[in-house]
Amino acid sequence: MRETFTKGMARNIYYGGGVFFFLVLIGLTVDTVTTIPKTDNRDNLTEQVAAGKRLWEKNDCIGCHTLLGEGAYFAPELGNVYTRFGKSTDAIKGFIKSRPKNGIPGRRSMPQFNFTDEQLEELAQFLKYVDGIKTARNWPPNVQG
Amino acid sequence: MKYQSQSIARLYFIAAIALFIGQILFGVTMGLQYVWGDFLFPAIPFNVARMVHTNLLIVWLLFGFMGAAYYLIPEESERELFAPWLAKLMFWIFLVAGALTILGYLLVPYATLAEMTMDDLLPTMGREFLEQPTITKIGIVIVALAFLFNIGMTILTGRKTVINLVLLTGLTGLAVFFLFAFYVPDNLVLDKYFWWFVVHLWVEGVWELIMASMLAYVLIKVTGVDREVIEKWLYIIIAMALISGLVGTGHHFFWIGTPDYWQWLGSIFSALEPIPFFMMTLFAFNVVNKRRRNHPNKAAVLWALGTAVMAFLGAGVWGFLHTLAPVNFYTHGTQITAAHGHMAFYGAYVMVNLTVISYAMPIIRGKQANNERAQVIEMWSFWLMTVSMVFITLFLTGAGILQVYLQRYSEAPLPFIVVQEKLALFYWLREFAGLVFLVGLILYVYSFFAKGKEVEIVEDLDMKKAVTS
User: In a 3-state reduction of DSSP, which class is residue B368?
Assistant: First the structure.
């Protein structure tokens, strides 16, 4: 680099730029947190849904599936599974419940988690709540996720 | 080696490489599960293998960063490490905690692990990359604080250089942003938003500071180029990393229920994120071209140039490929993401760790550089691992393009699992490339034990010129 561009100038860009854009990120975060009640479906965030989210986490569902596109890419997107399954929580529960213990020979298999009926309902309600989150451009592009 | 306490790095480097081997073994296992769906099911389901694969990566990179810090900070600060005993103690605590966590993943169902570790008291488990039991996370914080105290005191009471201050800043940021791992709200949008404060602000923020300072340190050592020149580069690279990367976090806020303005902000700022990586490539080649000595450790120079190029390709180019919102609309959460993730992590953080290990390990073992044969083997491992990672990335990109078309773009979108079956050929090819990577890694480990003719000491090019003219 040329001599006219000194180390001091580079240092000032680092400190100035770093601090400035960190403050910008904080400002945008404050705005985002105050704006998202319009989209985050919090009206339907019940105790049951929260319990379903805990089950989702406790069984590491994100280790195979994506949820709103984030997670692992081994198994289908579940952010819109409620819509894909014909807006039926029973269909979701039926699917989870019917997984064979030893998997399906040769195919990607979902474990049998032995959930109680109450837990199945909580999980299904959680996935229904996620489906109600208003994503930009209504992502995913189509029902297949 | 100027200071005795630098040798503590050896422990950290050995642990890092051991965990790296584990990471790759689980990587090839998962690769096989992609095409042989019930391989090892139900003993090791895919999610468990993936957790082990990604968590081992994170833990060994942290071991590498800490080892690098323990090696270079005493030398930069021109004093012994503040508390060598503390560094050793923390090593064992971190290793045991890490090993127990991985065994927990493998030996009991995840939900059982959550209960055994009383996750209900402060639930933090079950989020991608942050799957560790809460008690492990607390352990990580304690280890990180003790580590920061140790290197911080070393720097504060010693010589302060740009390299050790930038490294300290990066490592402090790493510890601070990790605290967001303890915030798990019921509201999924908020949960996702702040999850990225760990994940993005680590790998596209403070880790770049760590990487750039590690690279700058090795380049000073192997090229003998004036510190002033290198420090100027370092400042401008990390300046661009923060200027682009902080608001660039927005490229994760396109489709998770966050406001629409992130589409613009995320696209524009993350489109700038390749710049710091491109500058790192320019920096490395520039400085090596202007070298004032031919360092006998050619392997370390190769790693240094390699990490600069591969970080630019993996993080820069493959990141840019799908970072603009209109493109990301189709590619979000597909194999394109996986392709980018693999080359970015390998190119930036795996390779920069291997650069420092390659430079420092021979010195810790009492010589300037490894013998010629060991270096040749190490350079073979460089090419095998790097080329196979390029192919892994290309095959996953191929799979990703096809997946996007069949599942999201065509007139009649097909279900996920139907599409996955159509991608089997790409997954087989990826698995084959993964096995080549494993061969490269085995060679890499072997290079530490290979015997051969010892190399001569540093040759100073200025001296040579003076003599010949």
Answer: coil
